[in-house]
Amino acid sequence: MTEGVVGSTAWPPAAVATVIASLGAAALSCVGALVVSAWSARRRRHDVARDERDRYWQRLSSALDWMLSPDVSRARVGFLLAEAMYDMREIPPREESFAIVVAELIDRERGADG
Predict the structure, then answer these.
(1) What is the pLDDT of residue 7?
(2) Assign residue 94 a region: left if phi > 0, alpha if psi is -120 to 50, beta otherwise?
(3) 0.70 cut: is pTM over it?
């Protein structure tokens, strides 16, 4: 064919097309892997945030349930639980408004005790 010629000009057209197609497929696979990895990382952050928010609300609802108990000692324990949560300052994003109300109740109770 073309003896002594080095490079892609010496390749048959079908071979060049095959190499280009395989490089395109490899690039498309890499882009797909990056998209899936980014989506997976975003989803993981979303799931972790949801789990943290759920745990916060579970602890808070448990503390409020104890606080609203007719038994005085159990209500005091509930108040101490809510106070401990307030002191830890582990408020999830978008939950600040409710936390402010609870903080005002705790501050009011601390002022009454002291």
Answers:
(1) 63
(2) left
(3) no
